[in-house]
Amino acid sequence: MNNGQGRVNVMANSDFRRHVLDHYNRFSSCYDWSEFIRRETRRRAVALSDYQPGEKVLDVCTGTGELALTFVRRGADVVGVDIAPEMLRRAAAKQSSARPTWMVMDAIELAFASESFDISVLSLALHHMPETVQWHILKELRRVTRKCLVIVEPNPPHNQCLRNLWAFGASLIDESELLYAWAWQDFNRTCSNAGLKIRQVEATTFGLFRITLCDPDH
Ligand SMILES: C[S@@+](CC[C@H](N)C(=O)[O-])C[C@H]1O[C@@H](n2cnc3c(N)ncnc32)[C@H](O)[C@@H]1O
Question: Which parts of the chain have pLDDT scores under 50?
Fold first, then answer.
């Protein structure tokens, strides 16, 4: 996977990053309309993380911050980062007794020291990215995380005949151009290549989403 040219490949994907920025800055106001579909999965992600009071949590590609806020409501000290300032503006406008720290930052290069966080979470962002970019982000998450990583992504069907159909349907409601690649990607292998050890994989919300729980395995 890492052929020593990873950095070059990431830079070659700057078009993709421009597309992400354009899209999320423009559509940030609509993003939370479908939050009701994701709510149960977010609660389950917090439960699987085995969060303990006082632990530090990083939410990468936090978007409008719903997963970060789910941790904050349980008393966590949370940092939420995203490259799209408009998404973060929406997050910051939400009422909450305690507040995460919101930072504009590219997940490919996290400005945090190694093992700064007990738990890192990443939700519904990797399936928009080429696998090389996913790999870089997972490596960064591994570096900054002490205890566990929780990754939430769409869950393509196991049945191979249904996968392209799933990708077609999903592409009607999801802006990603990479859903066919995602449908066929061996994500467990991507995690292993990034040095993560998979502890548990669980489908949630009628199989729409998949939570992958990993150890950073330092
Ligand atoms: C579909 S939204 C998911 C938001 C949120 N995690 C959730 O679960 O609702 C994807 C988010 O990933 C962000 N993103 C994409 N690439 C990124 C990168 N390289 N670094 C930081 N954020 C990124 C986008 O700006 C967008 O807000």
Answer: 1-12
The SS3 call for residue 218 is coil
Provide CATH code, domain 6-157+189-215.
Answer: 3.40.50.150
String of DSSP letters for 63-116: TT-HHHHHHHTTT-EEEEEES-HHHHHHHHHS--SS-PEEEE--TTS--S-TT-
pLDDT score, position 200: 98
pTM: predicted TM-score of the whole model, two decimal places: 0.92
CB distance 63 to ligand 1 below 6 Å: yes
User: Does residue 87's CB lie within 6 angstroms of at least one atom of ligand 1?
Assistant: yes
Task: Give domain limits for the chain.
Answer: 6-157+189-215
Phi and psi at 156, nearest 5°, equal -65, 155
Query: Does residue 82's CB lie within 6 angstroms of at least one atom of ligand 1?
Result: yes
